[in-house]
Specification:
294 residues, mainly alpha, 13 helices
């Protein structure tokens, strides 16, 4: 239903469409269940009409629907993959079926009422309008900042305090906040902005290893090393034990004067990647700062 709606009214486009608020395998919102029922009923009505009295127009409608349904069924998230409910890019091939129906119906109208010029003018008008909108939409995809900011604008996290407890009023797209935070850290060196995005996720109880890894990186780059140590440790506890986490935590340990823990982390990083020159250099710095071992 959403795909068909986007064909005729391509408004509120997004790089990421979350599932409807409150939707779980145990709870299907009435709007979703109702849409599924209407779609099934409509398809059955077309098939029954076609079987009873086939005609060139019904043949075109059945072909177009079949083409659309078969090709779109592959990406309908019947078995969920990722957090997105659907995606615009999945429609490029399936929409051929719906355009076939529209083209046939427009041809029939033009032929029967002899209004070819009107139909062609309508095609040109709609095409120009959609071309203009496409050109406007391209700007959103300029970079990760504009792209994920657009998703966050449409699907933000919203909070409210009730009886001294903060609750989530609206769930946003966690992937958008995380991807924008990583872009701020690794591409733009805007660590305060990255920290703000990750803190939204932590307030929303999105506490995964990748979130804490990103949180730790932002804190370390802002020289908040004691907090970074805790964030690195939490990321490791949640299963992320890559060598760069040990190197990052070791660096923060070194800056707050906890040299024994720093040395342990650098040695672990070198055990996992013996050729890492940065871990080796920081291990030497740690040993030099600590002085002779007791």
């Amino acid at each position: 239903v959403q795909y068909v709606q986007k064909l005729f009214i391509p408004a509120n486009l997004s790089a990421f469409y979350p599932y409807p608020e409150g939707m779980t395998p145990e709870h299907i919102p009435p709007s979703v269940a109702g849409s599924a029922f209407l779609v099934t009923l409509s398809i059955l009505a077309v098939i029954i009409a076609w079987r009873r009295r086939a005609s060139p127009t019904l043949n075109a409608v059945v072909f177009g629907l079949a083409f659309f349904i078969v090709t779109i069924s592959i990406v309908l998230q019947i078995v969920g993959v990722g957090g997105a409910a659907y995606a615009d890019r999945y429609t490029y091939v399936p929409f051929i079926g719906l355009f076939a129906i529209l083209g046939w119906l427009l041809h029939k109208v033009a032929s029967r009422f002899r209004v070819e010029a009107v139909c062609y003018g309508l095609i040109v008008l709609v095409s120009c309008a959609f071309a203009f909108q496409s050109n406007q939409r391209i700007g959103v995809w300029s970079n990760s900042d504009t792209l994920w900011s657009d998703v966050i604008r449409q699907y933000p996290y919203e909070f409210r305090v009730e009886s001294g407890t903060e609750i989530i009023v609206r769930h946003g797209v966690a992937a958008a906040y995380l991807n924008r935070a990583q872009h701020y850290i690794y591409d733009l060196d805007q660590f305060a902005k990255a920290l703000a995005d990750v803190e939204v996720l932590l307030r929303a109880k999105v506490k995964t290893a990748i979130v804490y890894r990103t949180y730790a990186s932002a804190l370390r780059m802002l020289s908040r090393h004691a907090e970074a140590v805790d964030a690195f440790t939490e990321a490791m506890r949640l299963g992320d034990r890559k060598f760069d986490l040990y190197r990052g935590r070791g660096t923060s340990y070194m800056y707050i004067g906890r040299y024994d823990e720093a040395e342990r982390d650098f040695l672990q990083a070198l055990k996992m990647r013996p050729s890492d020159s940065l871990s080796m250099a920081r291990l030497k710095m740690t040993r030099s700062a600590r002085g002779p071992a007791k």
